[in-house]
Amino acid sequence: ETGVTQTPRHLVMGMTNKKSLKCEQHLGHNAMYWYKQSAKKPLELMFVYNFKEQTENNSVPSRFSPECPNSSHLFLHLHTLQPEDSALYLCASSLKGSTDTQYFGPGTRLTVL
Amino acid sequence: AQTVTQSQPEMSVQEAETVTLSCTYDTSESDYYLFWYKQPPSRQMILVIRQEAYKQQNATENRFSVNFQKAAKSFSLKISDSQLGDAAMYFCAYREKYGNKLVFGAGTILRVKS
């Protein structure tokens, strides 16, 4: 257990559903990240938050909406997803945004029907 | 843009033997960080080892060591005395020194035979 938890671990949703992924870190870190891991593709950074402020959006479609209410929690709100959005969504955190190692959560396996 | 290439989709090693996983990268930066992460079937991505580009000495962590060749932009991972628990997907990753973004390679599946 690395101190970064994600819920749910598995999620199946229809294209018209709205759901949210949750990430929580217990490491006292100030930066949090969302990554997407699709089959046969390298991990892709989606969003970065430093001290609750979004500092990077890697051209992610608006059907993915992140929220960072505090430095310990990060959400990814999902709506009107497509089947190609099915993937493993990984959350990570680091002490500061730039110089520190990122530690990952176990991921949420998302299937969009 | 930086890229990371792992040319070995899959590798196998006998238990207690040594295996080397390859990684090359492309960057115009002179100072940066390189990482090896391990992702076992449980899916938890775990940091294995980290190398700072300005340090010439190769990083080591117990049975894990790297061969960092800056001029060749090569960053291979050597696992000595392989154990069954080493079986996982291994990802090589690059990050600019003052950047947030980790750029990952496609990964290498390591199988350990008993």
The overall pLDDT average of chain B reads: 93
Helix content of chain A: under 10%
Low-confidence stretches of chain B: none
What structural class is derived from the secondary structure elements of chain A? mainly beta
* Termini Cα gap of chain B: 41 Å
Number of helices of chain B: 0
Helix content of chain B: under 10%
Sheet having the most strands of chain B:
6 strands, mixed
Specify Rg of chain B, calculated over alpha carbons: 14 Å
The proportion of strand residues of chain A reads: over 45%
Integer-rounded radius of gyration of chain A: 13 Å
Order of helix and strand elements from N to C terminus of chain A: EEEEEEEEEEE
Strand elements of chain A, count = 11
Total helical elements of chain A: 0
What does this structure look like?
The complex is a heterodimer of chains A (113) and B (114). Chain A has strands spanning 4-7, 10-13, 18-25, 31-37, 44-50, 53-57, 64-70, 73-79, 87-94, 103-104, 108-112. The radius of gyration of chain A is 13 Å and the shape is globular. In chain A, strands 2, 4, 5, 6, 9, 10 and 11 form a 7-stranded mixed β-sheet that branches. Chain A contains no helices and 11 strands. In chain A, a hairpin with a 6-residue loop joins strand 4 and strand 5 (44-50). Chain B is built from no helices and 12 strands. Chain B has strands at 3-5, 10-14, 19-21, 24-26, 32-39, 46-52, 60-61, 64-69, 74-79, 88-96, 103-104, 108-113. In chain B, strands 2, 5, 6, 10, 11 and 12 form a 6-stranded mixed β-sheet that branches. A 4-stranded antiparallel β-sheet of chain B has the order 3-9-8-7, with no helix packed on it. In chain B, a hairpin with a 2-residue loop joins strand 7 and strand 8. The model of chain B has no long low-confidence stretch (mean pLDDT 93). The A-B interface holds A 2, 31, 33, 35, 40-43, 45, 48, 50, 55-56, 58, 88, 90, 92, 97-99, 101-107, 109 and B 4, 35, 37, 42-47, 50, 91, 97-107.
Give a summary of the structure in a few sentences:
The complex is a heterodimer of chains A (113) and B (114). With 113 residues, chain A is an all-beta fold.
